[in-house]
């Protein structure tokens, strides 16, 4: 219920009026404090953060929120968007009751939410940027992983090449050994042809040709061996470079993973800030 003939001389209202400044100081933020009787605004301590004019002395309209609070004897909270007064703020209105429980007026506390709105927008932008960076980091990590696999495959291929060079060297050793034996065989055949005299002349020509081919084979084997040694040396250098690249790639993958985890932590923090801003 609420009184029909109360005015601003009511003791309870006088108490609130006398302590209006103290009530304002109870808040860490610069709030607007408005105290009304059932008919008009008795006091309004303005906030520097809410650009409204003082309504002290103004008669309350029957359809305005404070009158609804007085008539219903219930607390009411509302959000006022920035489109109305330039800044967003919240207003909480509470009915004032005297010692008998009769509603004699109301008190309203208005608080700017500009900082919370800015904080929310910044946290949203930060979260969006973090998600974009996180996505780019994941793509980079995938590329680094693919590159790492490629380098491992290349390293395996080079190892196989080294083995093939070693096998080829063994074959050349065998060919060189055959060439030496062929040379000895040709030399011995030449001796036998000389002993045979006129009858061994044709055989001597064949023996010389065998010796010549053996010498050519030996020379070719030496040339091929030299080329293989050079190739093996270059392969070894490439293997070293590839292994260094693999180490760098693996280190990069580890660093990218750490960066991704840090970004995720920042994203989670931004989401928490946004939730806190919504509750403020």
Automatic annotation (TrEMBL):
Keywords: Transducer
Keyword flag Transport: no
One of the GO biological process terms: signal transduction
Sequence ranges assigned to domain Methyl-accepting transducer in this UniProt record: 109-280
Domain of life: Bacteria
GO cellular component: membrane
Keyword Repeat annotated: no
A UniProt-annotated Pfam family: MCPsignal
PANTHER family xrefs: LYSOZYME-LIKE PROTEIN-RELATED, METHYL-ACCEPTING CHEMOTAXIS PROTEIN MCPB
Designated name of the protein: Methyl-accepting transducer domain-containing protein
Organism of this sequence: Caryophanon latum
């Amino acid at each position: 219920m609420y009184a029909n003939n109360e005015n601003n001389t009511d003791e309870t209202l006088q108490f609130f009026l006398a302590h209006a400044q103290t009530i304002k100081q109870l808040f860490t933020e610069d709030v607007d404090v408005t105290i009304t009787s059932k008919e008009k605004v008795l006091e309004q301590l303005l906030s520097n953060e809410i650009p409204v004019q003082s309504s002290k002395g103004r008669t309350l309209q029957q359809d305005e929120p404070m009158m609804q609070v007085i008539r219903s004897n219930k607390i009411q909270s509302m959000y006022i968007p920035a489109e109305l007064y330039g800044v967003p703020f919240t207003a909480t209105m509470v009915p004032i009751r005297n010692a008998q429980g009769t509603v004699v007026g109301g008190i309203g506390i208005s608080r700017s939410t500009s900082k919370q709105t800015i904080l929310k927008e910044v946290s949203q932008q930060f979260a969006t940027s973090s998600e974009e960076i996180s996505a780019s980091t994941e793509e980079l990590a995938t590329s680094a992983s693919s590159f790492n696999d490629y380098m491992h495959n290349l390293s395996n291929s080079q190892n196989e090449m080294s083995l093939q060079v070693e096998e080829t060297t063994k074959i050349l050793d065998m060919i060189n050994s055959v060439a030496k034996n062929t040379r000895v065989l040709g030399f011995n055949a030449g001796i036998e042809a000389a002993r045979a005299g006129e009858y061994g002349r044709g055989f001597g020509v064949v023996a010389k040709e065998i010796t010549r081919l053996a010498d050519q084979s030996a020379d070719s084997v030496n040339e091929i061996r030299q080329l293989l040694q050079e190739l093996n040396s270059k392969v070894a250098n490439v293997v070293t470079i590839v292994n260094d690249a693999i180490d760098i790639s693996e280190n990069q993958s580890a660093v990218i993973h750490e960066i991704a985890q840090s970004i995720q932590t920042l994203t989670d923090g931004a989401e928490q800030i946004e939730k806190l801003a919504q509750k403020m």
